[in-house]
Amino acid sequence: MRTLVAFVLVSFLPVAIPILSAATISNVITSPTSPAALNYGNYLTFDFDYSVDEDSRIFGRPMYNGVRRTDYGAHPSPLYPAGTSGSATGWFTLWSSQPVALVDEIYFQIMDSTATTVLFEHFEPVEHAFLLLGDMNNDGAVNGLDVAPFVDAVISGGGDVAGSAVPEPSTLLLVTIALLGLLCRRRH
Question: 4 pLDDT exceeds 50?
Fold first, then answer.
């Protein structure tokens, strides 16, 4: 009877169940650091530490709202030999017809050597936006209609000019002179 009671008690205790792999991803650092904005086609690079216990391939892919993006290009993976650990670098970029595309996670997968079985997953939270270069009014095109929102953003100290710094006073003066020149030219 004691053996049966002991078996019943042990069978309901939480236990750690070994997983298929002891692979890990840690210490993820992005460049540019999060939060940041990039132009379409620019690379978001990331350094990370890894550990694998069998021959593996490691992929980092962009996610938004829990869904892997489909409008990306990304690094291939070399073969990481069994029993190794170290640091590695990966990258991805986005291409989209939308004015802005967001990434809120990097989805890391450590897969077997044939990239058919997932051995480990890691989701790294980030805040990155990929933008259509120069599309300040978010209409999907870069044209003269982007000038006024750009000037407004510059005058207000950067506003939502993604990734730009507050301009030097001389730059602001040059932009103002150029805009005045355009306005005078239109009136004649």
Answer: no
Cis, bond preceding 99 (omega within 30 deg of 0): no
Domain count within the chain: 2
Contacts with 62 (C-beta within 8 Å, 6 or more apart), sequence order: 44, 68, 69, 72, 74, 92, 94, 103, 105, 106, 107
Contacts of 155 (CB under 8 A, 6+ apart): 172
Q: Classify residue 23 as left (phi > 0), alpha (psi -120 to 50) or beta.
A: beta
Report the alpha-carbon distance of residue 78 to residue 55 in Å, rounded. 10
The DSSP output letter for 80 is: B
- The Cα 6–Cα 22 span in angstroms is 31
Kindly report the average pLDDT of the chain as a whole number. Answer: 77
The answer, as to whether pTM is greater than 0.85, is no
- Domain final residue, candidates 131, 156, 174: 131
Region of 100 on the Ramachandran plot (φ > 0 left; ψ -120 to 50 alpha; else beta)? beta
Asked if residue 111 and residue 33 are part of one domain, the reply reads yes
